[in-house]
Amino acid sequence: MIKYYIACDFGAESGRVMLGVLSPGKLMLSEVHRFANEPIRDKNGLYWDVPRLFQEMLTGLEKVSQRDDPIAGISCDSWGVDYLLFEQDGTLITPTHHYRDPRCEAGMKAFLSQMPWEALYQETGIQKLPLNTVFQLAAENPKRLRQAHQLLPIGDGFNYLLSNVSRVEVSMASTTQLYNPVARTWSSKVLGALRLPPRLLPPIVGSGTVLGPMRPDFARQSAFQETKVIASCSHDTGAAVAALPASGENWAFLSSGTWSLMGVELPEPMITEEARELNFTNEIGYGHKVRMLKNIVGLWIVQECRRHWAEREQELDYQVMTHLAGAAQPFQALINPADPRFLTPGDMPQKVAAFCKETHQIVPRKPGEIIRCVLESLALYYRKTLKEIERLTGRKIEKLYVVGGGTKNTLLNHFTANALQIPLVIGPTEATAAGNILVQAIALGQLKSIEEARAVVQESFTCEIIQPHAAAWDAAYARLTQFL
What we know:
This protein has 18 helices and 23 strands. By secondary structure, it is of the alpha+beta class. It has two domains: about 5-235, Nucleotidyltransferase, domain 5, CATH 3.30.420; about 245-425 and about 450-484, ATPase, nucleotide binding domain (Nucleotidyltransferase, domain 5), CATH 3.30.420.40. The strands form six sheets. Strands 19-20-18-17-21-22-23 form a seven-stranded mixed sheet, with helices on both faces. Strand 12 (about 180) and strand 13 form a beta hairpin. It is globular, with a radius of gyration of 22 Å. The model has no long low-confidence stretch (mean pLDDT about 95).
């Protein structure tokens, strides 16, 4: 039987409405509507334009309805940590703050004065980053929290707007640092330290929970009359990992995009002193599997370089930047991607140059030199992270599955294979949409298990395998470790 599904995938740089056609053993994806996701900057801070994102999603649904295919299910997923506030009547409270808003640093300082970092990690298993939801809430305007009736992460918030049912799916709940992955519930200790009313947080549900039918005003078209809104994996990385064509244990994953998330699947959370010191995080995936991973700054640095050059009338698309980087001299300079300066917006080429100058290296000036410096440094930082994963888990990682928009950056993929000296399996570019849809299919009974879903991915998408080649990466890694 053929069934049709929609995945509304909201990323930190762009969004898309994807149509999935699932027949026995095969999944076909088609992009119906793609749109930019550009934050709003003003003197008061950095925000997401949520009303525009919602309208873009509705535009995509209108395009789907014109095909008149009966849609069985729809689900929204998004990046983590940010949240929507709603009044009792469902009105969105604006603005929606961006996780790179400067308020986050003050929020982290304020919260950790109430609850020590060691206690927070023991309770949640989430790595320390200023952008975490808990620190954003510590910086939140008390008046807005008093006005709010409920708080929902972005992906779950859009599911609520489509269904009028407010639930937080567990993969998303686990990213907020408000969730206890051992007790599998909201953390009363963290909520108490925040003085956050429990009423603000809706119930947590498992991955693949049917929320109900679409709201009548959205289900008027014949295509949506039988459509179920499903809390698939609301966190985009959770959805992407669900679509990995993987089996066995000796593999790791890399979700490559604005952020790079590198980790492994475990049966239980790893909340240890060593994991805390190495700043690893425990997020939940389908079936309550744990994604023990590290958030790495990723291609955000490249995106900010491109934005800076475009503002100065030096328009360079990603293909041109990658070509220039490929032609630049190898290992001229390296940066530490985890340096806090690279987490915030600004003149990113100057930040790269400043780091290189401070560490007494050749200072890259041209776009190709800067981008090569960033990509080589990311690949080497992946090597550091993989060594830490092996140390924590006792596993020897033999293969890395790479998914996400960053899979299009072939230069970074080859750098990563060479730096890690293991094969890379390049998964579907739209792995998040694929995982979103496959978990929907499990929820509606078309697929029986996550293993069957991953077998569908193997049959439906051609995965490129990149073998490592000998190169001067050992010496470069030794250089990078001096800056960490």
